[in-house]
Amino acid sequence: MALNLRQIEIFRAVMITGSISGASELLFVSQPAVSRLLSHTEQRVGFALFERIKGRLYATPEAKKLFHEVENVYQAVQRVNELAHDLSENCSGILNIVSSPSIGQMLIPQAITMFRAKHPEVKLTFNCLSYAYLKDRLLNRQADLGIIILPMEHPNLEVTPLCSNRLVCVLPYNHELTRRGTLTLADLRPFPLISYDKDSPFGGIVGRMYLEHDEALKPIMEVGSPQNACSLVQLGAGIALVDEFSVRSWSASSQLVVRPVANAPILQANLVHVRLEPLSQLTQGFIAELRKLVQGQGYGVPALMPAA
Q1: Alpha helices, DSSP H only, in 216-264?
Q2: pLDDT in tens, 164-179
Q3: How far is residue 93's CA from residue 60's CA, in Å, rounded to a whole number?
Q4: Closest Cα partner for 49 from 90, 11, 13?
Q5: Which one of 4, 15, 25, 54 is most buried, counting C-beta atoms within 10 A?
Q6: What is the pTM of this model?
């Protein structure tokens, strides 16, 4: 008949201590209890585990063979317990993060650094991806958490607001518009504008903004991301409308000048994960660090936000 875990524990304790009294001390149970459980164990397996010679216990050949397998089981149980402890303390595991390029250039690396300081044993993977690839990674369960600055809709994805920022205008350091405090779309009209594919999510935001203000959108070129736009502006190729996340990822030495734009749309950064699957302790811990970071940097934080 099969042994239960308690019987295996008693057998192992007697084997490694060599006595009933030793097993009693090891397991913090009385000696009669050990003797009784050992007798039940021998009855269960159907053969003697120990020979009693002059008051001492000697393992039988069968017991020695059994002990080898019992040790394997015990070590496996120990590994399970250690893993459970590590998981409860957020000490180990793997956390896979993906983000859109704008928020991934600076903010997410900062959050990862903060998280790693508290959880040095955790392995992280991090990738900046385009909108479509990011969604696929999440749906294919190749990422635990996504952070995006654009809306994302899918019945299998849960989207939670993280923070907000605005669309702003970036200019070369010597541009004449730098003399103004707040710009309008009409102010931008005479200058070469770098924009985005109208069918892309970011291009759609810019396009709707121009449409709502009855302004014609006539870019001199279209690029794939606000980061690309900032690079071209720095080189003097034109001006661009970008999100604040992208601007803040550039150092002061880049000589980009930022100006607010009147009635610019508010962009909401979101946390995205697979719906109907609970977030791991590691993921919740990372979200907590990320929320501290965006609040500390002055981004708009939603008044109602689910706790991590």
Answers
A1: 226-234, 244-248
A2: 888 999 999 899 999 9
A3: 42
A4: 11
A5: 15
A6: 0.65
CA 264-265-267 angle, 5° bins:
130
**Closest of 186, 139, 145, 141 to residue 162, by C-alpha:** 145
Q: Which two tokens stand for residue 184?
A: 């309008």
| Tens of pLDDT, residues 248-291 | 877 666 788 999 999 999 888 999 999 988 898 889 999 999 99
Are 5 and 78 in contact by the 8 Å Cβ rule? The answer is: no
Task: Tell me which amino acid residue 165 is.
Answer: N
Token pair, residue 262, equals 């009147």
In angstroms and rounded to an integer, the radius of gyration of the C-alpha atoms of the chain is 32
CA distances from 252 to 51, 209, 234 (A): 81, 28, 12
Q: Which domains does the chain have, with CATH numbers?
A: 5-88 (1.10.10.10), 95-160+271-296 (3.40.190.10), 163-266 (3.40.190.10)
Q: Nearest CA to 223 among 247, 240, 246?
A: 240
Burial class (CB in 10 A: 0-12, 13-18, 19+), 112: middle
Asked if the model's pLDDT at residue 90 lies above 90, the reply is no
